[in-house]
Amino acid sequence: xxxxxxxxxxPPCCTRFGSLLVTGTSxxxxxxxxxxxxxxxxxxxxxxSSSLKWDHYKDQDILPMWVADMDFASPPxxxxxxxxxxxxxxxxxxxxxxxxxxxxxxxxxxxxxxxxQPEWLVWLPGxxxxxxxxxxxxxxxxxxxxxxxxxxxxxxxxxxLMGRKTVRVPLAENGQRWTMDLEALAAAITPxxxxxxxxxxxxxVGRVWSRDELLGLGELxxxxxxxxxxxxxxxxxxxxxxxxxxxxxxxxxxISRRTITLQAPSKTYNIPGLGCSYAVVSEPALRLRLQRxxxxxxxxxxxxxxxxxxxxxxxxxxxxxxxxxxxxxxxELLMHFIDGIPGLVVSPVEATYLAWIDLRERGIERPxxxxxxxxxxxxxxxxFDLPGFVRLNFGCPRLLLEKALARMERVLR
Length: 413
Prior knowledge:
By secondary structure, this protein is α/β, with parallel strands linked by helices. It is about 40% helix and about 20% strand.
C-alpha cells in the first residue's frame, strides 16, 4: 500500500509485509476502514485485557492517565497485518525482514532527511532494555552516566542497575519553558563521565530541542569525548506546526560517530506491548559495544512486533496525521483547563502526549496521592526527580480526558 496525500492506494490483489503475503481480503478491510475518518473518540474497555495502565487501579474508580500508553486502537493496516501473520500459525524465533529494514530507512529519510545504512540498525525489544544495554556496553563499572532531569525514570535507574553512577543535571526553567543548561552540564562532567543520556523530544517536559541546543550538546560531548545515547521514541509526535524533530546524529558526522539513537514505532502507533524498537549506530566500533552490552540480557524481538512495525511505517502515515490533529485538540482542552485553575502551570507541550504540570504553588505535599483520591491516576514528579509536579497522559478519547479534568477541577476548587 502506498500513501499519496491522504489517500490509500492498493495493488490489485495483494501486497507483502516482509515475507508475509497479505491477501486482497485483508486489504479490502483496511481500505473500507480508511475510507472513513479515523475514530479516536470510541472508548475501548481495557479492563479485561490485563492492561498495565488500567489494572494498576483495578477495582478502583480511578481513571489512569499515568503510563505513556495511549487508549486508541492501533492503525487498521497494523491490525490487518497482525491478523494475517497470526493465520500463518507458527511463531518461532524471527529475524527482522529486509522489507522492514527498507521501511525504516525510507521513514527516516522521508521524515528527517536522514540517510541511514541498513547495517547501522540494531534491533531491540524495547527502549528501556536499550538504555540498560547502552549503559552496560559503553560505560565501565563505577563510571559515570550523566543526564538532564526531570527525566523518564529509567534514565536514572539504568546506570545504577548496571553498576554505573548516575549524575543528574537539572534543566533550566526559563519562565514556563525548559531549556538545556549546558554550563551546568559542563561543570558536572568529570574524567569518570563516559556516557550522556538524552531524551529528544523530552519526556516529561515536552520540549522539541532546537538545532542550536543539539549542536551545543554535541560540541560538549566531542570536547569531553562522551558517547551520547539519544532516546528519540517520541520523534514522530511533534504537535507544534512550527517545530520539527531533528535526529541528533543527523546534524554532524562527528556527533554521529559518537551517538546511539534509540527509536521505535511503539509510542506513535500505540503498539508498545508488541516490543519492537531499534538503535541506529553509524560507528562500527560503537555498534559492537552496544551489541556486547546486550549479550545475555536482551531477548530477541518477537515475530508480531516486526510485522506491526513494518505495517505502521509503510501504511500508518494517514492515521498518524489524524492522531496528531486529535492530540492537538486534547492539548488545547488541557491548556484551557490549566489556565482556569489558580496555582497550576503547565509547560508548553511541543511534542508527545504528556503534560508536565507544576503544582508547587498549591503546596500539595503528595500530588499523586491527592489526585488518586479524586479519581485520577497521574505520574508523580518525584519519580522523575522533581517533586511538586505530575505528568498527565492525554493520549485518550476526549470523553475520558474531560471526565478526568472534571474530577481534578472538583478537588482543586
